[in-house]
Amino acid sequence: MALFTQEDLLRYLYKESSHELASAIEMALKEDYTLRERMQELEVSVNQIDTEKQLVAPRMEVVLRVLQYARETAPEAASHS
């Protein structure tokens, strides 16, 4: 039974692992219940982090609209300062 580091599993989740490593992990996942549990926990953590990133960073389109609105509604005096 091969031992995989957390980094190996993260690379696999983000599809950044080599073909050989991905194949080895997939085979091990079929046979190793403990590895499947580790992978599921890691997937939950990664999904939570990805979700938090999406909540923190607005889309560029939204930022540009807010800036455009601010320019359009700014008092005339503020633009001459």
Can you describe what's shown?
This protein is an all-alpha fold and 81 residues long. The chain has one domain. The chain is 78% helix and 0% strand. The chain has five helices and no strands. It has helices spanning 6-13, 19-31, 33-56, 60-73, 76-79. The longest helix has 24 residues, at 33-56. The mean pLDDT is 85.
Structure described in brief:
The chain has 81 residues and is an all-alpha fold. The chain has one domain.
Regarding quaternary structure, what we see is: single chain
Question: How far apart, in Å, are the first and last alpha carbons?
Answer: 70 Å
Largest sheet: none
Helix content: over 70%
Per DSSP, the total helix count is 5
Beta-strand segment tally: 0
Which shape, going by the Cα principal axes? rod-shaped
Beta-strand residue fraction = under 5%
Residue-averaged pLDDT, rounded?
A: 85
Stretches where pLDDT is under 50 for at least 5 consecutive residues are: none
The domain tally reads: 1
Order of helices and strands: HHHHH
Supply Rg. Answer: 23 Å
| Secondary structural class | mainly alpha
Set out the fold topology.
Layout: H1 6-13, H2 19-31, H3 33-56, H4 60-73, H5 76-79
Helix pairs in contact: 2-3
List keywords for this structure.
81 residues; mainly alpha
